[in-house]
Amino acid sequence: MTKKKTQGLVVGDVGYDSLSVDDKYLIRRALNKGATRRDVMGMLMGAGVTIAAAGSIVTAASDAIAMTPKRGGKLRFAWDLHGPSDTLDPVLFTSSIDYGRGRLTYNNLCRLAEDLTAGPELAESFEANADATEWTFKLRKDVEWHDGSKFSADDVIYSMNRHLGEKSTSKAKVLVGDIKEWVKDDAHTVRAVLSAPNAEIPIILGTFHFKILKNGTTDFSLPVGTGPYKLGEFKPGVRSVHTRNDNYWNEGRPYIDEIEVFAITDGVARVNALISGDIQMMGNCDPKAVPQVEAADGVEVFAVPSGAYMDIIARMDTAPGNNPDFIEGLKYLQRRDRVLKVVQKGIGDIGNDHPIGPAYGAAYCKEQEIRAYDPDKAKHHLKKSGITSAKLDVAEVGPGLTDICLMLQRECAKVGFELQINKVPNDGYWGAVWLKTPMHVSSWNMRPSANIMMTLAYKSDAPWNESAWKSERFDSLLAGARAELDPKKRYEMNCEMQKLISAGAGTLVSTHRAYVDAKASNVKGFPRVPIAAFGGMEWPEWIWIDS
Fold this sequence. Notes:
It contains 17 helices and 22 strands. It is α+β, with helices and mostly antiparallel strands and 547 residues long.
């Protein structure tokens, strides 16, 4: 389907339900401000929509006006883990609870839409030069920080420079490694000057770590932002409290008076808290609990298809993961089909020991053969490794992850290998265990492009290269794919990278999963951006309570 853009809308021959949250809002706002049915139909038809489709969209929009967002109310959101490493410093964000708090407090230069394209946020427009080695961002002039001071280019330069240079502590600096410098042209214009072409810069700047801070910010105990909510309280590992920013730059938003964010690490307790009304949003609903939520009054499941995944990691810079036969043996013991059917209740896709699944569309290497379950090959490689036992640290950092590890343990036992499962607490996991012990587990959100995902998780110098796998060929392909405009060549490069990871890295990826969360039925307006829980953690600006 071909899509065209007009008057801020990106539409095609689609129904109202398939439009993005932004497009629905623009259509409803036009009708609310007095535009006639004919006016809005004309706008849609000018964008290439058929008469029938335009009529359907306008009718649905008119019906939706009766459900216009209401202001007011309080909401409690419980995530599945937290700890002392919780932070409001965007360069250090690690977990989804950080991402949610960041979206409440700050803004990015660009915003990701539901189709993972980049649109304007604090930058009202952006464009590249002919070879995508320079990007210019025109900034909004009507934005204020929570303390009343004016937003300007100095804030952007300061925020972006925190990701550059060898001394940067940014978890995502690898994504902007080809940015040589940020230049201020005037008070509301900045430029990113690159060392190599990169067509994905706006998409990268729409991701979690690239929030814009006030110039000079170093104290993150109660930072100010430009975001939809002001920070009232923040205690890492305990909770945060956010109140509506009534001077928010984006007209009419947000809607809720106060939002409290914390964690309930026990999955059963989290579901019970939702059903009882103690919370209104819960992240990471175990697929096994879906029938319980669906049977209860006043609550519902909120699911978004995605390329997210959970993995088992063997660090290749220490024993036992520094033995390739040990890793190969474990990969042949994965019951991928059973994980999808039994653990995930069929919600997701089969994985192949790399991070790119079918949800990544044209970047997914569809002709790559899935590594089959083969206990004979597993036994051969494990015997060749000379290793007879190993310890795996496990926390339930993703729904069903413990069950996946126990399934692998049983398969190991069948071929005479002892895999010891060491259960560790969810609280503080990302700071105390992840990237530190020889074998452990992880859970990844989908990223807006395959290149971004593979860069974050597998580039040789990436801070989040979980298994410490290094490949010069892979790194070269990553850089080349960012600059490659020929879709066929780019697909071939993506395929080769996925095959290299699957064959060489110390990560076991059996499946990809959808995001399955749950909420009170009267909480409305969630977007469906598929890169994190609750629509990419984009919910703070959009949701409202139908009281």
